[in-house]
Automatic annotation (TrEMBL):
<dbReference type="InterPro" id="IPR036291">
    <property type="entry name" value="NAD(P)-bd_dom_sf"/>
</dbReference>
<protein>
    <submittedName>
        <fullName>SDR family oxidoreductase</fullName>
    </submittedName>
</protein>
<comment type="similarity">
    <text>Belongs to the short-chain dehydrogenases/reductases (SDR) family.</text>
</comment>
<dbReference type="Pfam" id="PF13561">
    <property type="entry name" value="adh_short_C2"/>
</dbReference>
<dbReference type="InterPro" id="IPR002347">
    <property type="entry name" value="SDR_fam"/>
</dbReference>
<keyword id="KW-0560">Oxidoreductase</keyword>
Amino acid sequence: SRLVVVTGAASGIGAAVRRLLEERGDRVVGVDLAGTEVTADLATPEGRAAAVAGVLEASGGVVDGVVTCAGLSGASPALPHVNFSGSTDLVLGLRDALAASEAPRVVLVGSISATRPVDAALVEALLAGDVAAATAATKAALADGRPQQLYPSSKAALAQWARRTAVAPGWADAGIALNVVAPGVVLSPMTAALVEDPRMKQVMDAAVPMPLHGYSAPEDVARMIGFLVAAGTTHVTGQVLYVDGGAEATLRDPAH
Ligand code: NAI
């Protein structure tokens, strides 16, 4: 059976991915702050190194899939570190273990919000792997009253990183497929308070229009992740796949 690492496996989309993979016979090694096989804080470089070490120990050095669902929303100073580096450092740290698999697949969870205005300095710092600069840009965004830019910046950087990395030496040429699944609004603990507040709900519905079936369940996103992480999905890489009820198509600049 295949061994798949799932971050954020204790809640929401990550928990739904775990259920789907285990039902089809895959072995899941979960990574989260609590309640998973590997306990680690993906907000810090030390925590990310500990997560990689824990996964390598639990897997014996061969990893067939990595799915990064751990993430934060809101105005937390840890947000860009968890959402971007918590995914990218884990995937980089597990590259050799992925390359040892016969059909390695990586799926990062992005967001429709990556299409919203970003903080260019923060995106650049994240892509450069410059933790100090990313921390400084995050502090500046919070101090300047731009907390709403943190989340789209982290997810836009993640999508850019995925496109570059997927076709960089050592990835596609090693048989590793790497894609992003970008949900619209998913009903999970992350959004529970937002959808219950009529004013927040109105803002969110304007920002993320979902004409096809409205808000999704974690399972709806998990099915796309399960498809991309499967051994039989051989030729998809470097893509951002929106599971967003038509939000991206609605918001997209018609000239592109
Ligand atoms: P959730 O809040 O239910 O689950 C997130 C998980 O990440 C939790 O188990 C949490 O403990 C873990 N986590 C947070 N910080 C961590 C840290 N420092 N170290 C280790 N684990 C940590 O949220 P949900 O909705 O399942 O979100 C999963 C992913 O989907 C996130 O990346 C989120 O940004 C993304 N997403 C969610 C959407 C939504 O509407 N819920 C929409 C678009 C993207």
